Amino acid sequence: MFSSKTKQTLQVKKRQIGIFHKQLELINFKRDITVVRA
Fold first, then answer.
1. Which domain of life is it from (predicted)?
2. Do 34 and 26 form a contact (C-beta atoms < 8 A)?
3. Which CA distances in Å does 14 have to 1, 6, 26?
4. Cβ-count burial of 17 within 10 angstroms (0-12 exposed, 13-18 middle, 19+ buried)?
5. pTM for this structure?
6. pLDDT-based confidence at 16, cuts 50/70/90?
């Protein structure tokens, strides 16, 4: 079992990774739009 502190750290990491993935998706999305326009 994880201690509560470890669980909190894992949740924070998961949230950071989620935000990172969303930013990546946004960048890819914008790139796709630029390619379509060009």
1. Eukaryota
2. no
3. 18, 12, 18
4. exposed
5. 0.58
6. very high
